[in-house]
Amino acid sequence: MNISEILTEWYEIHKRNLPWRGIENPYFIWISEIILQQTRVSQGWNYYEKFISRFPDISALANASEDEVLLLWQGLGYYSRARNLHHTAKHILKYFNGIFPNRYETLIKLKGIGEYTAAAILSFAFKKPFPVVDGNVNRVISRFFGVTEPVDLPDVRKKIYILAKNILNEKKPDIHNQAIMEFGALQCVPQNPDCANCPLQSGCVAFSKNCVEKIPAKKPKKEVENRYFHYFFVKQNEKTFIRKRQESDIWRNLYEFPLLETEKNLSETEIFDSQEFKKLFPDFSKFTILNISQIIEHQLTHQKIFTRFYEISLSQNFANSYFFENFKNIDFAEISDFAVPKLIENYLKN
Ligand code: SF4
């Protein structure tokens, strides 16, 4: 038996029953693949079902507001992926009459669809011979063929893609791809893979050279940047103030409270004395501080956000022009209608 046959035989016995398994609708495949790039299967399942029940096809997604799409996505992180989903749905509706393209060259030009997602859509939905190389496949291939260089280097990625293509069963690319992905997820796992009971063991270079735990190798990590946020939860009667974040660094188009960002960690007194604070609260005598939270640490991929939340009440009838011009004035109860970063969602829950 060749590698593909071994993997397929293993797959038929061990595969998990997942809601998107065997689906041939390219729209559903696309949604599931983008969600699974964000999260583990157990959490992704829930999001996938919510997403396709609210947006059962391209036109439902294209015609929704971006706020609604982001709200359903809330908690998954990487919000640019949700914005890209929405943008691409609109594009497909407008330029392809709502019909999913089935050519690699067309798919790869769509926002948010890279080599991996295009291959998944083409092989699962259209049975075209494209190898899918996700993290799981990367691991299986690099271990089996003994690729010791960092797999995140462009040349090494190319090499792994070629190896993946060489072992692809072109007659059944959908089953082959599902099988190797599942094999990486369940058998050839990152820590302590079950090599003793592995059907690929006799040909596996990493196993024979006793370097399984060292593969796949990665480039040294980028340094994490620390950022210091001060969010002001301003209360006036039953209302508060939020705005849509426009900055392109993180959380673009999500909603947030008035924010001051500082270059280092400042004490409350230093914050209240700062020029930025005085600009944000020109007439602070009309405000009362109700509570200041401990510093909350929030980890993103390359950033760590240190945040304090300041709960502040604004005099009942005082119309602070700065706030009314720059922020949306909403009822507390309405906050759940707006997509907010996980950091703010957690704060509100507590
Ligand atoms: S022998 Fe171990 S490292 Fe090699 S493919 Fe099997 S599980 Fe992965």
The global form is elongated
Which structural class best describes the helix and strand composition?
alpha+beta
Task: Write down the domain tally.
Answer: 2
CATH topology grouping of the largest domain: Endonuclease III, domain 1
Note poorly predicted spans: none
Estimated radius of gyration = 25 Å
Summed up, the helix count is 16
- Spell the H/E element sequence: HHHHHHHHHHHHEEEEHHEEEHEH
Mean pLDDT: 91
Number of strands: 8
- Please indicate the percent range of residues in DSSP E strands (runs of 2 or more): 5-15%
The unique ligands bound to this protein are: iron/sulfur cluster
Helix content: 40-55%
Annotated CATH homologous superfamily of the largest domain? Hypothetical protein, domain 2
Biggest sheet record: 8 strands, mixed
In whole angstroms, the N-to-C terminal distance is 56 Å
Which architecture of the largest domain does the CATH hierarchy give at level 2?
Orthogonal Bundle
> What's the CATH class of the largest domain, please?
Mainly Alpha
Relevant terms:
Endonuclease III, domain 1; Nucleoside Triphosphate Pyrophosphohydrolase; alpha+beta; 43% helix; 350 residues; binds iron/sulfur cluster; single chain; elongated; 16 helices
Question: Would you kindly provide a written description of the structure presented here, covering whatever features stand out?
Answer:
- By secondary structure, the chain is of the alpha+beta class.
- The protein has helices at residues 3-14, 26-36, 41-54, 58-62, 66-73, 79-95, 104-107, 115-126, 135-144, 154-167, 173-186, 205-208, 268-273, 275-280, 321-326, 342-349, and strands at residues 225-236, 239-244, 255-256, 259-262, 287-292, 296-299, 303-314, 328-331.
- It folds into two domains: 3-214, Endonuclease III, domain 1; 225-349, Alpha-Beta Complex (Nucleoside Triphosphate Pyrophosphohydrolase), CATH 3.90.79.10.
- It contains 16 helices and eight strands.
- Strands 1, 2, 3, 4, 5, 6, 7 and 8 form an eight-stranded mixed sheet that branches.
- Strand 1 (225-236) and strand 2 form a beta hairpin.
- Helix 2 runs antiparallel to helix 8 (115-126).
- The protein is elongated, with a radius of gyration of 25 Å.
- The mean pLDDT is 91.
- Residues 140, 143-144, 187-188, 193, 195, 198, 200-201, 204, 206-207, 212 line the site of iron/sulfur cluster.
